[in-house]
Amino acid sequence: MSNEAFDKPVKVAVHDKSQIPLRKALIGFFSAWLVFAAVLYLMPLPPGMSPAAKKVLAVLLWAVIIWVTEAMPVGAAGLLIPALLVISGAQPKLPQALSGFSQGVSILALVAFLFAAFMQLSGLDRRIALIMVQKFKATTVGRMVWSLFATNFVLAFMIPGSVARQGTLLPVVNGLVRLFGDTPEERAAKKTLVIHALTYACLICGIVIQTAHMPNLIMTGLFAKELSIHISFINWFLLQFPILMMFVFTYLWTGWYFKAQGLKVPGGLEMVSRQQAAMGKASREELIILTLFVLVALAWATESIHKISTPVVGLLFIALFFIPGLLPYKWGLIQEKTIWGTWLMLAGAMSLSAAVSASGLATYLANLARPLAEGHHWVVILIIMIIATHIIRLGMLSNVAAISMLAPVMLAMAPMFNLNPIPFTLIVCNTDTFAYLLPTQTTAGVIAYSTGTFTFADYAKVGIGAMIIAAFWDIVFMSQWYAFMGFPIWQPLTP
Length: 495
Prior knowledge:
mainly alpha
């Protein structure tokens, strides 16, 4: 088999407007503005809702429709959110409307995006992926799944956002998939590899690393702004890392379902070795970038010692990349590889999330949902909220849009049930990320589906079990871990 198929670069552009049918985009675009105007000017003020909350609701619905229909580039939508907050009167002062752009976590995200740009330019990200797969000596589908999980975990430290990580792994996974034939067992092996590597592993690892999943930053920004509780990069990892163990049970479930994990990968190691050989030895640029990344990771891990905040440390280290003569990359190349659109979307979403809380809209929506769960044990309350959020997510691709809407509401709802808002918000929003029923519920699912190895029915059947595992793990185990870490869900925060 020719090696050319393995080495062709694969471009991932899920948010490329050219891929969205024009009719759908136009319907979404005009619907968003009509809903915005209708809520702002025609909808009567509901009892208990403040005028500011109604204005924020208009902006929120506009953003959700734009994100769900992908009627505009996500970056443009992120930029428009502060403008709409101002012109609607929800937040008349521009600095307040732009609060998401200046929060520490949004700066941290930008630092992570710049790191990823340097890694992509040097090829270091792909080299690390190939080394991780090769080191596992993966000769069976099961071992290959674990090697790709480990690769996802390592890349999560270096590459922010699931789309960017999948762009790195997609050529590797596609190369492995092409090694299999078309027998029922081999088709099951392809499904196992793709769904695990490009969806489950990517999302599970992303939740654990603060900068690897944009909803993480939305939640930490919300905790800092509304509760004055600042969760650093290392503390987020300590708080979330037991979620990694959930992959064991997901692996066992999919192993039982597809029954392909013992199947041997024909020529898998040889394919990886060919790709490694084609890359040659590590370049000077790769070694410099790796050294700087290790140093910044150490600086982030020791924040409690040097007392310099994580975003500031990141900015200082970014400056080192631009020492004259150190690296050959011009700003134009770096700018091209930096995912500015995603950063603008994140900052806009954080501005919107802050407005939802500050206007009282979160409290209003929480009061509407309160009767559904009132009077129940906290476990039952979580189950009700998780089911409700998954129903909402059936029509939403953007996890960022979902968390921008849900996190402030969960934060406001928790005190109504005498619960701690931090673990309550984390558990509900974590399980929202594991929306495995349809590929169209997450960008990770869409990219995995693009490989053509599984159907919607395949994804849904195995996904139902994986979603139940995720909900069970979060409610039963993570709630106890959060309590051990100082955030018992059954104990309200004291002022």
